[in-house]
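[Automated response] Your request has been received and processed.

Submitted sequence:
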Amino acid sequence: MLQSCQQELWGILGGLGPLASAEFLNTIYKCAEWDKEQDAPRLILLSDPTFHDRTESFLQGREDVVRCQLEESLLKLKQAGATRVVICCVTMHYLLPKLLLPEICNVISLIDVALQGVIDTPGKHLLMCTRGAMQLQIFQRHPLWPLAAPQIVVPHQSDWETIHDLIYSIKQNQITEHHPLVLRSILERYGVQSFIAACTELHVLTRYLQQNRSASLHWVDPLELLARRIVNDSYSHYAKRASPVFS
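Generated structure:
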């Protein structure tokens, strides 16, 4: 009997902000190659910009309203048939340990991907994330942190606001040639040439850097790494379909 192989349907919770999740979809399809479009990865995007600001909500102790929105969105993606889910907001991962829904087991943690990416990439990397992610120590509380920490440079508190403002200007669709200059100056202060794109907005910046061939800058971008995984999973599915197993 021919055994069927069901391809994953990846659910992407986006809109947090909208540019980052849209760029993530673009990255996935630019990474992929296919002979016919039916072989491309299967994706479903729920782009909902109405989520409350995560940094402000969490730091002000108003996480309940965001958690309710998150649970509703995860349920919608499940009902739409998503088998794996990516939440395109690093700061939102603060809530993952607090969720009781069974859907949480299908969420691929960007913190997992980022820290494993650091472990797999030689050298030192500057942790660049929102002020909220830094104050809540979302990365430092993760089980992989002790393994990754020797390769991570944590910025001084005096630079948190500068990095936060850089991220929020990208949210407002203001990325220009000024952003690489600011990024480069921050990295030079810490004596490193690589950074962790520990906010999904920075995925927009890494794509900009790649398109403008900023060869002296390097990064660990969890959305880029995850895009490759999604593409590889899709290839694996169709390789199995091309070589059926009979029993």
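Summary generated for your ticket: Residues 222-242 form the longest helix (21 residues). The chain is about 45% helix and 10% strand.
If you did not submit this request, please reply to this message.
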